[in-house]
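User: Okay, second chain of the day. Same drill as before: sequence in, structure tokens out.
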Amino acid sequence: MSTEPLIFHIDVNSAFLSWESADRLRQDPEALDLRTIPSAVGGDAQSRHGIVLAKSTPAKEYGITTGEPIAQALRKCPGLTVVPARFDIYLEYSKRLMDLLSDYTPDIEQFSIDEAFLDMTSTIHLFGSPIDTANLIRERVWQELKFTVNIGIAPNKLLAKMASDFKKPNLCHTLFAHEIKTKMWPLPVGELFFVGHSAKQKLVGIGIHTIGQLAACDVKYLKHLLGEKYAVLIHDYACGIDSSPVGYREPVNKGYGNSTTLSRDVEDMETARSILLSLSETVGARLRRDHVLCDCVCVEIKDWDFHTTTHQTTLKCPTDSTTLIYEHACRLLEEFWDRTPLRLLGVRATKISDEGYLQMNLFESEQSKKMKEMEKAVDHIRSKFGTDSVKRASFLKKDRMVDHAAGKEKHMKQ
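Assistant: Same drill. Structure tokens below.
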């Protein structure tokens, strides 16, 4: 059994387009493979509405990018084939991929619908060398599921994810400690995981153009530029440091979440905190309604360029408290948001347990007990007289962005 950590990161190549193509060919083997022509998933070609969610390799040659309007993509390539998204099909293919990956290790973290981390430390000896095992997985995915993946192989999650983003498609790459200097440090600083558009501009503004230059920079200068926690995080990443474990994530139907697409992009922490509070109130109320507790809080953001990022924390004690969920959500956002303008914010509570299993916290303060009773009382009033019957004072002078956040609940467990 290996004692050195070994992490694989699996990333589906052009996931929605790949799954759309695979499903069409499954239904009709004579169908045209969308991956071989300029094509895109998302929106409506006739009305020219919507955005590009995924594009084929031939479409990339026309300069088409994920997130751009369909109308703009069609101007670049008038012959572009555009098909609407079918998320039920994509969820099915995602599940089939996770089922296949579970043949190699029980330690899997599904990072998104088309990405997963595998902790291979305890099982790699069953299959062979890391690169041979990764190629075996890659070939099985193609033979059995009919789409391609990139696989990054490294001693931690950060390096594995960086490695999977090297040359695509359908390839495996390593990024071990001795390879960081030659493989990662020459890359543009904007390619480092968690470095968004805003942070990239600030770093380039002080002469940091590559990941290697970021790694060589004294972190105290970065703290003044980017804030203490975020500066330490990306400096560690630039040095290849990441101690986060591959952790199990609850399926969507075993959590409670709320997210909102914002009426305008948000750039300041004060406004973001107000929205997080509104979202946390909905999540906390639903936990209390169902008499369950969460052991994990996750914050999701999507920036103006449609890049989605999540950050989560495990709680010391399970909770259903709006106040605690909100406090953890704010801390998470401060840790990983680089102030790139946001168009979506979300809060998720996972690792759900029945409140009957919670042991009495001997150190719970009287203030904490009163807060719980107050939140339950507010829940009761709102259930009887409507959501707007009780409002926090902090919301009274906020604009409609906060009201919009409260009304866009995502039901993750029904």
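The chain has a mean pLDDT of 86.

User: Thanks, on to the next one.
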